[in-house]
Design brief:
heterodimer; A: 287 residues; mainly alpha; MetI-like fold; 2 domains; B: 325 residues; two-stranded antiparallel ribbon; 15 helices; 2 strands; 78% helix; 1% strand; flat
Chain lengths: 287, 325
């Protein structure tokens, strides 16, 4: 009874609408700073809707007529295969990460093995090694195996890049699953795959979704390895953007449109996952 | 007969066998519990550890594919080359400047924003969404945006704003060429803009985990806002700030996109950091041995920093689980 009223009261408190001006001058300051931080992106959006001639005026003409021409040009300049490659690399690696990380986190969090701390520490240490030091050997091995310019090979590398983050995130999610439920299932003689599918997955699915979104963002945005391990067939979106640097003539508005097209999927994903973002970035240490 | 009557004396033996059996069962159980972990661990060893072992091996080889005849064991010559090469030395110094100033600036600004966001005000959710967006936009996209839309001397936002100020207040607005006038600052500003949300989110999580009863009690006892911040909030935030710093250093040591897009490491080697110089050494100079040696050096720097990070991350995680139990 009393707990019910407390939760109701909390609910009511959260639902009360805040009026403009509440929070005083510090609230206004927060708004001003947020708008300042966002201004470059707003300028990017505005420029992408301007014609190339209007984008290249000095000083910038914010009130120039709006047009969708630059977006049309971007898509006619064959952005789609690059976006599809990004989607394949990020999507495939995210799937593989989840498939590998869910059982691993089960072993470290739900049914802890003896040496959890050592195993998790080692997993974390692999994430702390700088990527650039792996570039040359990975390049040479891919070259030797004929895997350069292969989107699945790139996805395999991204899986290794994201797996430590995923195991740590998933570990902190799975540590919250009540142990009694699992013990009961085990007494009833449920097998590991069954326990994973019927109990762990449903309970941990919000965490798995958040982990997947974070890994997707990291893989989608990666540039260094995408640039050096791919050539023509398997190039991803950031590599497409770089092709603008070498193009001649006016290109600012088109570049803006392209930059937005390749960023939008991840911005949307990040907005959706923003509550879990910090957990992924801090490798599960902060909630 | 004897077995039936001597049940008590036989007990130690059966206890021993039972213990042995239990130990064997434990071993099997342990192995079975470890089994779900194995695919992930094997994958990590193959994909992330073997390349580093190869790098260490390569760092002792003379291996430049432009001079195939000279290929062979070179001992420590690559390390001597890296440490005496003025470009590599500049790259090391630039890395230190780039990482420390970006981490410091983004941490200070991020903490300030987190303190603002930790209060109730109108549209807090929207403000937070706006503030995290710089971190979500693809780094290559934001780097090109800063170079061509913000820093550009003719069409860029900065000089456009200056020109507008000049027109409004009637003075001759300066129109600097930002990237060549202050190349390092251009990179640091871009990095700070990108990484401030990261610092803000970790600090905000720290602030929100602070027990509100304690601050309320302090208010009742007549502690001022500054005193509360100095003696309650800051000590509580300390481990979060440390975590943000260490993770920031480790992530920013990898900075590549911004240098590649905005300055290409120039002018000269003014903004070349270690990752960019290693990239140039491997894929422009084709000196694989020297690139590997430089790679080993950046790994050593990271390992030193990461040592602190490991301890911080695991201490925070045990605190979290400790609270729940």
């Amino acid at each position: 009874m009393s707990t019910k009223t407390v939760t109701q009261a909390k609910h009511v408190r959260r639902k009360t609408r805040r009026k403009p001006g509440e929070g005083g001058p510090l609230g206004v300051l927060a708004w001003v700073l947020a708008l300042c931080a966002f201004a470059p992106i707003a300028f990017l959006v505005l420029t992408s809707f301007h014609a190339e001639v209007d984008a290249a005026t000095s000083p910038p003409n914010l009130l120039a007529p709006l047009t969708l021409d630059e977006y049309r040009l971007v898509f006619s300049r064959n952005i789609t295969p690059y976006m599809l490659n990004s989607l394949m690399a990020a999507g495939f690696s995210t799937l593989l990460v989840v498939v590998l990380a869910v059982p691993a986190a089960y072993a470290t969090a739900v049914k802890p093995i003896g040496s959890v701390r050592g195993v998790l520490g080692w997993v974390l240490s692999t994430k702390f090694l700088p990527m650039i030091a792996a570039l040359l050997p990975v390049y040479l091995v891919f070259q030797y195996l004929g895997l350069l310019d292969n989107i699945f090979a790139l996805a395999i590398f991204y899986t290794g890049m994201n797996l430590p983050v995923a195991i740590w995130m998933m570990h902190s999610f799975m540590a919250e699953i009540p142990k009694d439920v699992l013990a009961a299932a085990e007494v009833d003689g449920a097998s590991l795959p069954l326990i994973l599918r019927k109990i762990v997955l449903p309970l941990a699915s919000p965490g798995i979704a958040a982990t997947g979104l974070i890994c997707f963002i990291f893989a989608w945005n990666e540039f260094l390895f995408a640039l050096n391990l791919t050539a023509t067939k398997a190039s991803t979106s950031p590599v497409y953007l770089v092709s603008f640097i070498t193009s001649e003539g006016l290109f600012i508005a088109q570049l803006s449109a392209a930059a937005l097209v390749v960023s939008i999927p991840v911005i949307l994903v990040g907005w959706v996952a923003q509550d879990k973002l910090v957990q992924g970035l801090s490798l599960g240490a902060v909630k | 007969m004897s077995t039936a009557t001597s049940t008590p004396p036989a007990a130690p033996g059966s206890i021993a066998t039972a213990r042995k059996k239990a130990e064997a069962r434990e071993k099997i159980l342990g192995r079975r519990r470890r089994r779900p972990l194995m695919p992930a661990l094997i994958f990590l060893v193959v994909v992330t550890q073997i390349p580093f072992v190869v790098t260490i091996g390569m760092s002792f080889l003379n291996w430049n594919i432009m001079y195939p005849k000279d290929t062979g064991f070179g001992g420590l010559s690559n390390y001597a080359e890296v440490l005496s090469d003025p470009r590599m030395r500049a790259a090391m110094w630039n890395t230190v400047v780039m990482v420390t100033s970006s981490v410091f600036l983004s941490l200070v600004i991020g903490t300030g924003l987190a303190l603002l966001l930790n209060r109730k005000f109108f549209g807090r959710g929207i403000v937070r969404t706006l503030l995290i967006t710089p971190f979500l936009i693809m780094p290559m996209a934001s780097s090109l945006m800063w170079k061509h839309l913000i820093y550009n001397p003719d069409y860029g936002m900065f000089n456009g704003f200056l020109a507008w100020l000049g027109q409004t207040f009637g003075f001759d607005a300066p129109q600097p060429v930002w990237v060549s006038a202050a190349p390092m600052a251009a990179i640091v500003v871009t990095l700070t803009w990108t990484w401030t949300p990261f610092m803000m989110l970790i600090t905000l999580a720290g602030l929100q985990s602070q027990d509100s009863d304690i601050t309320e009690a302090a208010t009742v006892d007549g502690a001022g806002a500054w005193q509360q911040f100095r003696f309650l909030t800051l000590p509580h935030l300390r481990q979060y700030l440390e975590l943000a710093t260490v993770l920031g250093i480790i992530y920013l040591l990898n900075t590549y996109d911004q240098v590649f897009a905005i300055t290409q490491g120039g002018p000269g080697s003014a903004t070349t950091n270690l990752p960019y110089e290693i990239y140039l050494t491997a894929f422009r100079k084709y000196d694989y041995g020297e690139a590997a040696a430089a790679g080993v050096i950046i790994v050593i720097i990271s390992v030193i920093v990461a040592n602190f990070g490991m301890r911080l991350v695991s201490s925070l995680v045990t605190i979290e689980t400790g609270k729940k139990r």
